[in-house]
Amino acid sequence: MSDVIIVALITGGVTLTVNLLANWSSRKKDAIAQAKRDQKLDDQIATMNRKLDEHNRYGDKIGNMEKAIVRIDTKLETIIKN
């Protein structure tokens, strides 16, 4: 083989290797960034679920207060009637 062909093959091999390494590095960085975004989203969902649970407990408390008010009203009615 001539020297020109050998130099072209070496140059092509080095170029291919550099491109493969650059792509691998880029994919790794993208995967890390995606993992961070996923973690942030998971944290936001957990926070929203916690707030929703807290909100639902207020609904239960209000329901209990309404029942207590009804009992008080019935007791007052019996007291007033007597």
Walk me through this protein's architecture.
This protein has one helix at residues 3-81. The N and C termini lie far apart (120 Å). It has 82 residues and is mainly alpha-helical.
Defining key terms:
rod-shaped, 1 helix, 96% helix, 82 residues, mainly alpha
Which outline best applies?
rod-shaped
Spans where pLDDT lies below 50 across 5 or more residues: none
Question: Ends: how far apart?
Answer: 120 Å
Helix content: over 70%
Mean pLDDT: 92
Query: Which structural category do the helix and sheet elements fall into?
Result: mainly alpha
Biggest β-sheet: count, sense, barrel?
none
**What is the count of DSSP helices, taking H or I runs of 4+ residues?**
1
Instruction: Say how many strands there are.
Output: 0
Proportion in β-strands: under 5%
How would you summarize what this structure contains?
It contains 1 helix and no strands. By secondary structure, the protein is an all-alpha fold.
Lay out the secondary structure.
Elements: H1 3-81
